[in-house]
Amino acid sequence: MKIQNKIKAFLLATAFFSLNVMAEKKLEILEEVKPPPKNFESDVVEEPQITITKKGSDTVEEYRINGELYMMKVTPPAGGPSYYLLKEDQDAGWARYDGPSQPLTVPKWVIFRF
C-alpha cells in the first residue's frame, strides 16, 4: 500500500513539474500558412478517358489514364456479347476476358533489366 502511495505522489509531482516547465516556455505565434493556389492541378487523372470508335462492324471503346491505353471493350454488331482486352504489363500483348467481371491479374514487377 505504501508503494502505491509513493507512485501516486511521484506521478503527481512529475505532472506538476512538467506543467511548470511548459508555463515558463515562451510560445511564439507563427505566421499563417497560405492555402495552395486555386489553379493547382495534379498530373493524376482520376477518371479514365474513353474514346469510342468503329472498326469494321465492331464498336471499340478505348480506356486511357494519363494518355496510356490500358483496356479496350469490343462490342460486335447485332447485340453480340462484349469482350474486354486488357493490357497485362508494359512488354506483353493483350489478354482477352469475356464478361464485365474483373479478371484475376497477377502482379508483375521488373527486378533487373539487362
Keywords:
114 residues, alpha+beta, S-adenosyl-L-methionine-dependent methyltransferases, 5-stranded antiparallel β-sheet, 20% helix
Could you give the order of the helices and strands?
HEEEEE
Q: Would you state the CATH class of the domain at 37-114?
A: Mainly Beta
End-to-end Cα distance: 72 Å
Mean pLDDT: 76
Question: Which structural class fits the helix and strand makeup?
Answer: alpha+beta
Largest sheet: 5 strands, antiparallel
The spatial strand order of the largest sheet comes to 1-2-3-4-5
CATH architecture of the domain at 37-114: Single Sheet
**Number of helix segments?**
1
**Total beta strands:** 5
Give start-end ranges of low-pLDDT stretches: none
